[in-house]
Amino acid sequence: MYGLVNRALEEMMRKTHGDATWEKIKERAGVDIEVFVRMDAYPDDITYKLVGAASELLNQPAEALLKAFGEYWTLYTGSEGYGALLDAAGSSLQETLANLDDLHVRVGLMYPELKPPSFRCSEVTADRLVLHYYSTRDGLAPMVVGLIEGLGKRFGQTLEIERLARRESGDDHDSFSIRILP
Ligand code: 1MF
Hints:
Helices cover about 55% and strands about 15% of the residues. The protein has helices at about 5-15, 20-30, 45-60, 60-80, 85-90, 95-100, 100-110, 140-155, and strands at about 120, 130-135, 160-165, 175-180. Strands 1-2-4-3 form a four-stranded antiparallel β-sheet. The chain is built from eight helices and four strands, in the order αααααααββαββ. The protein is globular. About 25% of the residues are buried.
């Protein structure tokens, strides 16, 4: 994944647990990279190892860390020069979710090593929809829950998210029921 992802993870960990803990996480993960370059593509393995090491060291399930990271990603990219990208994707949660593939196409034009996931919406009503998530990567559905919650916060909405289909249970993709609370 692009260095931007590892940098965001680093920033979240440094802010919530301090610099010394981040160094320990890197050491435990066996990741000997001093500075992640935003526009360099890194093996996915590095990100997974960092999350795994953080999970062990902090005694928190990887799923919980991934969810927190998803939420952090929407804040981080919103403030690190990608706010316009998110703004252009839509002015409501439904619109933004429906435009995520376009957003990734735009990023992918400039950064060819992007391996974007794909999203599709169904059963869309004023206060509910089902989001379908297709990825080349395993295990990141908990992060998507955090991403959706982060988008909700961007629009000042409180959401109730329920996982429906799960790839780890043999379904062909992951899906989420999203309800916008009044
Ligand atoms: O392949 C990749 O490197 C990659 C990196 C980040 C692919 C996707 C993403 C973003 N995605 C991460 C979790 C899903 C991973 C997966 O299943 O394969 C989050 C997608 C998302 C979902 C809901 C709401 C918002 C979302 O993201 C918004 C977004 C997406 C991509 C970028 C920024 C915001 C982005 C921008 C520039 C990038 C890479 C990603 O690359 C750079 C960065 C700096 C300089 C040069 C290139």
